[in-house]
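User: My collaborator sent over this chain with a note saying "see what the structure looks like." That's all I know about it. Can you take a look?
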Amino acid sequence: MGSGESTTRRVSFGLDEEDDRVRILRGVKLSEDVLQRMRNASADPRPPVNNKENLGQQTRASSTSDPQPPKTQARTTVPDTKEELRKRYEQQQAIIQEELAHIARREREAARQDITRAVQRERVQTRQESEKTKQLGKQLEKKEVELKALEAFYKEQITQLEKKNEERFKTSAEQFHTAATRSEANIKQRNVEPVCSNLQAQILNCYRENREQTLQCSDLAKEYMQCINAAKKHQQLFLPALNGKGSLDNTSREENEILAAAHISLTVSNLLVNHG
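Assistant: Without extra context I'll predict from the sequence alone. Here is the result:
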């Protein structure tokens, strides 16, 4: 059956457990329709004998009035029974072959349907996975666009902050240089020369040479004190007086006098400590 060549199959019969009828064929239970067709085939009348045979039998029957012996009847009946059994067997075989072909067709159809359903499920699953992949790809592209937008935004913010910081740095540097220039213009460098440096050196040498007889240096000490007093009078040290606006007058002169007085006081104190 089908596209392939037909092959002869051997079949085996089995009895049904319910009514002891032939219903099972190599593990396949025959349907009631097949069984009915087999019954109808077995119930067909015996085919008629040829006319020649009937004529001969009628002639022989008319020629003699004696009945045929039972052996002759048995001889003519047995071949007919075998022929009927053979034909019945062939009919049953044809029915069984047809049923087997029908079962094979149904099995092939069921297998084809199963394969079709499996292919359809696979296609549906593949389509769903493809759609899911496309959706994930779109989401990824959307995230990438958002990240690029955020990156551009933060870059712009950083650029603006850098510009602002640079402007503030320039402004601060300009203000610093301006203030430094003003301070340098207001503050002039002044050189202060030491007072009575020669006498100071002589007194120090005298005290080093006469550690046990320091009175020998008293004359130099008196002379040194007189020199200091003269320097004080010359510098005219005094406390700065505030003017009506609360500012100092003659700032450069007052600074020179304060520095000279501090130097003199430090020198005198050092000499007194060493002398003591």
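A starting point for your reply to your collaborator: The chain has a mean pLDDT of 70.
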